[in-house]
Amino acid sequence: MSTFITRPLGAALLGLGLTLLSAASVQAQQVEVKDAWVRATVAQQKATGAFFKLSAKADCRLVEVRSPVANVVEVHEMAMEGTTMKMRAVPALDLPAGKTVELKPGSYHVMLMDLKAPVAAGDSVPLTLVFEGADKKRETIEIKAEVRQMGTKAAAKPAPMEDAHKGHQH
């Protein structure tokens, strides 16, 4: 009889524990990611960009991005130096609390380089985003970014990615 009582009680407690754990992980997420997309590639193209909006509840930094579709993944900044647009990798991207930071063509973005295969419109690209808080604790968020063709509404202002990477060494 005690076995009968223990099992349902144990199952109920396990269910309650999983529910609380799930609620804690949702509440613990300090960064919201919106509108994630990746620019579609053409045959033989070995690099593309990923773009999204980030909103942090507390000051933190985007310190790493990974994806199984590329051998090299970096956060990049595009900025004018005189009359020339320059692109460079940045070690981290600051996310001030309560502010939305948009990674977009012609600005901060994620470069997916040495692609393992082309990415086509309609595909979904998995991205792992790693954030670090002021306390040095890290949070990882897994997202899927929709692949979009150039000229779509979200890709309406494309940056000349291939030109910006001429001479860019890794």
Question: Which segments are poorly predicted (pLDDT under 50) over 5 or more consecutive residues?
Answer: 1-7, 9-27, 154-170
Number of strands: 10
Q: How would you characterize the largest beta sheet? A: 10 strands, mixed
Using only CA atoms, what is the Rg? 20 Å
Helical/strand content category: alpha+beta
Average per-residue pLDDT, rounded, comes to 81
Descriptive tags:
10-stranded mixed beta sheet; 2 helices; alpha+beta; 170 residues; disordered C terminus; 18% helix
Describe the structure.
The protein has 170 residues and is of the alpha+beta class. The protein contains two helices and ten strands, in the order αββββββββββα. The protein has helices spanning 2-28, 161-164; strands spanning 31-39, 47-56, 60-66, 70-81, 84-89, 93-95, 100-103, 109-115, 124-133, 138-148. Strands 1, 2, 3, 4, 5, 6, 7, 8, 9 and 10 form a ten-stranded mixed sheet that branches. A hairpin with a 7-residue loop joins β1 and β2 (47-56). The longest helix has 27 residues, at 2-28. It is globular. The N and C termini lie far apart (67 Å).
Structure summary:
This protein is α+β, with helices and mostly antiparallel strands and 170 residues long. Helices cover 18% and strands 46% of the residues. It has helices at residues 2-28, 161-164, and strands at 31-39, 47-56, 60-66, 70-81, 84-89, 93-95, 100-103, 109-115, 124-133, 138-148.
